[in-house]
Amino acid sequence: KGKAKGPKGKKITLKIAKNSIRITLDGRRRLDLSKMGITTFPKCILKLADVDELDLSRNMLKKIPGSIEKFQKLRWLDLHSNQLEELPEAIGKLQNLFYLNICNNRLTSSNLPEGLNLLKNLHILNLGLNRLDSIPTSLGALKELTEIGLFDNALTAIPKSVKRLPKLKKMNVERNPFPDSIKQEDHSDPIKRVETLHLVQEKDLCSSCLKVCKGERDKMHQFMDVTTSSSKKSSFSSLLTPNSTAKDNQEEWRIR
Questions:
Q1: Which parts of the sequence are annotated with region: Disordered (predicted)?
Q2: Beta-carbon contacts of residue 104 (< 8 Å; ≥ 6 apart)
Q3: Concatenated DSSP letters for 40-65?
Q4: pLDDT of 1-35, one tens digit each?
Q5: Domains in the chain: ranges and CATH
């Protein structure tokens, strides 16, 4: 007998789509089709390809077509919490994309398109809650990236090209099966992101500043004496990189 059919999902018409356009606080046009029970990408929204933001999150989408490239003005694309197993190469043609959330899908490392490394203006990328066992070194080409979510995957290493991205400020890699050697390596340089360290001699400080500094130094020494004597164990066994940010709630990753 014939194959069992999946859920049909809600049919999105052009009228429904037009009524789903919202104006954001900063004046951008957002097409919000989240939580609509959509199972297939609605082709009718290609007629609204001039929107600035597209939210298709929390649906049942398994595929995004290559025609997504028609959304050339798109700055913000949210596809989190679907059933995506792959992304089209054409996603790399969205050159204005600033924010991309593909968290909580079924993406594997082999199905991450090479086109991702073409998103030169991308600042925020969320790949958390997928099935990734490696991260392509080519993501090191995303020089504008400031935040990346890699949590809840099957990663055993993070490429140096990604860890050393020049503008990267936040990297969430919680709950990945990293080997102990990787954890120790990441602990070895606790001040990787310090850009400038200012040192002065005591003689260059005024009396009031010198008094404050000495007081703070004494407090630090007391704290160090207490912590070293009370326990020799690391208190940060789950901290994988200096940039790690424990954001268990994926909603926090939807902040623009």
A1: 233-256
A2: 80, 81, 82, 128, 129, 130, 250
A3: S--GGGGGGTT-SEEE--SS------
A4: 445 555 667 899 999 999 999 999 999 999 999 99
A5: 29-172 (3.80.10.10)
